[in-house]
Structures are given as C-alpha cells and as structure tokens.
Design goal:
By secondary structure, this protein is an alpha/beta fold. It has 12 helices and 13 strands. It has helices at residues 16-32, 58-71, 116-119, 124-127, 147-157, 174-186, 203-209, 219-226, 238-249, 264-278, 281-294, 299-309; strands at 2-7, 35-39, 50-54, 76-80, 91-94, 97-100, 103-105, 134-137, 163-168, 192-196, 212-215, 231-235, 254-258. Strand 12 (231-235), helix 9 (238-249) and strand 13 (254-258) form a beta-alpha-beta unit. Helix 5 (147-157) runs parallel beside helix 6. It is globular, with a radius of gyration of 20 Å. The two termini are 12 Å apart.
Length: 310
Amino acid sequence: MKIRIETVGGYSSGLGHITRMRVLAKELIEKHKAEVEVVTDYKPFKQEDIVIVDVDTEYEALSRVYTIRENLPKAKIIVFRNGDINISMGTITFGGTRLDVNSIIEPTFDNVILDKCFRRGRHPYETLKDNIKFIFLNQGGSDPWGIAPRILHVLDLLRVRSTILVVVGSATHDLTVKQIKAFGNVHNDLPVVVYYDEPSIELKDLMSYSDVAITAPGQTFAELTAMSVPSIVIGHHEMHGRISRELGDKKAAIDLGVGVGMTDEELVYKLGSALGIMKSLKTRKNFVNNARKLININGIDKIIEYILEI
C-alpha cells in the first residue's frame, strides 16, 4: 500500500501539522508495513493508493485535492479538517468542479496523534511535586507573534524564581530567538534555560522535569497532558481561543485567552492569577486528571484504523 501525506509547516503555520503527520507516517510504516512519504513541497506523484491532506486553509486543501484528482483519479483521499476548511458530505467544489473525497477527519483531542514516547505518559500522583521548581514554556513551533519573550518579561516582573525551561521551535523567527536568549543573559534573577534545535535533548524529558507548563492549546498541550503536566494555555488566534475556552470551561487547563492584542497589564494580571492557582498541588492534579479525560492518549490507533478501512 502506497500512502502519500501532504502537509505544511513553517513560520506562519507552525509545526503541528508536520509533527503529527510524521508520527502517523512512522506508525504506518512500522506497524502496518505501508510505504509512506510525507510531502511538504511539490513532488511528482507515484501512483499512490491513498493521499492524506493536512493543511491550514480551505483554499489550500481545495487546490491540493484538485491536483490529486487530476493526477490520481483512482486514489482515495482523506482530508483533515483544519481552521476555516469547510468540507461536507464528502464533496468539495473548486473552480466550478465537483470533487469527491473519501473521508474527512476532525483533528480533535479524542483522536490526537501522539508519538509513542508520549503514549507511555507518567502518573500525576507519582511525579507532581509540592513546589513549582520548573516551568515549561513553549509557544508552538514558530511563535509567530513573539509571545514567549513577553511571558518571560511578565514572569520576571512577577518575581517568579522557578527555573524556566524554554523550548523554541525550529520555525521561530531569529529575532524572537535572540530576545529569548538575551533575556536569560540579562535578567539573572529569573533562571532561564533555552533549548533550541538540540537533538540530544528530547522534549518528553524536559516535560518530565516540569511542574507547570505555559503553552498554546495545540499539539504540545496534548503531549504535556500525556506526560501529566498541568497547563496554562494562551492562544495565538481565534481558533486557539475557542479551544482554550473549552479547556478552561472543563477545568482541563487555565485559559488566558488570545495573546495577540492582549495588553501587558492584562497579561501580568492573568498570568499572575494563574500561577497563584497552580501553587496548590491538589489543584494541579485536578487539572491533569480533567485534561487526561479529554485527551485520548491512544487516539492515533483510531486514526490508523479509519485510514486502513477506507
């Protein structure tokens, strides 16, 4: 079986799509002996049997399906619904042409795609500590709005003295990276350790040290939950905002809202309040347990079963 996965990643779209599609490909290859290629730029078609599309926007999804149908009229097409993608009834219309897709997958927390290292997550009552010694800070693979440096300034202003483990995605703008690294050199009272493109440091290991996380409500939040780390979530855009509100309503995380447009005064007040709440070990455990009820750690199994049944 030949499977082609078309996805995107970079400064504007982040790395979440690529991350989960590479995990999916690895699982299909190792467990099901499929021949899988993850395509992020244009590559010639190879008579694939199944094509999976996981991209940001409706326009991009439509144009890719159109190209696939032109080149592989008999291939089965699976589309991940993301953002403003509005595909229903197994058909889409592009340029006046009606195109059929075989399946549409909703990338929800119930079928989240996690690497096997996260699916062996730890138990909260065995690992969470009374004191918050380490705070995990990440704003996705690109942090397009430069929220992480702002959070560091707020943590310093709040006189937080926990060690901040900052994970900077490889698609992050150089200016944002320089701001983060410079912050650790200038503000000596706030211990900051930056991890940027260090293959020797595995993400799960940093999470395993962490007592609290400040993150975006996407792939990394799901990974943190699998590792039983309670999260404070801050979104980058309105779709993130909707997810953050849902997590907040279900007491699965503390929702700060959307960072873009938030004033410094608002960020100081909200983050200060959130860290105050997280001081309680019992409260942190409750957040983890509620989040683990939402996150299906083995959601990838559902996705693969769905793909293989197409």
